[in-house]
Amino acid sequence: MPFRSVLEAYVARHPGARAAVLCDDEGERIDLAVGAMAAFDVDVLGAVLAGPAAQCGGRLRIRLDDTVLWMSPVADGCYVVVACAPGLDAACGAELASVAAALRAAM
Predict the structure, then answer these.
(1) Do the Cβ atoms of 32 and 82 come closer than 8 Å?
(2) 3-class SS of residue 75
(3) Beta carbons of 6 and 74 less than 8 angstroms apart
(4) CA atoms within 13 A of residue 96's CA, in its CB half-sphere
């Protein structure tokens, strides 16, 4: 399944995107694309958002000190998380629905 190619293309298109991860409903990584972040850190972010992903029916934006996280459901039991640089995250959030649709189509 081409999840990684979808995620890598998304991260490459957005200068502010630091990483993207597709997770299952337990927060386990299915696939990821890293830019300016370590894979372990991306896995932790994806796992931490398992609870909110299960309760949130749509897109979610979380502002941290030095990172903005965007989360969107992909399909039942799956969600995508994108870590972005603050101030450069608007384009990442705007395209999040289309990335979720591309991931869903790849399932």
Answers:
(1) no
(2) strand
(3) no
(4) 27
Instruction: Give pLDDT tens digits for 89-104.
Output: 898 899 999 999 999 9
Q: What is the largest CA-CA distance in the chain?
A: 34
**Residue type at position 14:** H
Give the pairing of strands 78-84 and 68-75. antiparallel
Indicate the pTM of the whole model.
0.92
Domains of the chain: 3-105 (3.30.450.30)
H or E element that contains 55: helix 50-55
- The residues with which 82 forms a beta bridge, in sequence order, are 20, 70
**Vertex 86: Cα angle to 49 and 29 (nearest 5):** 30
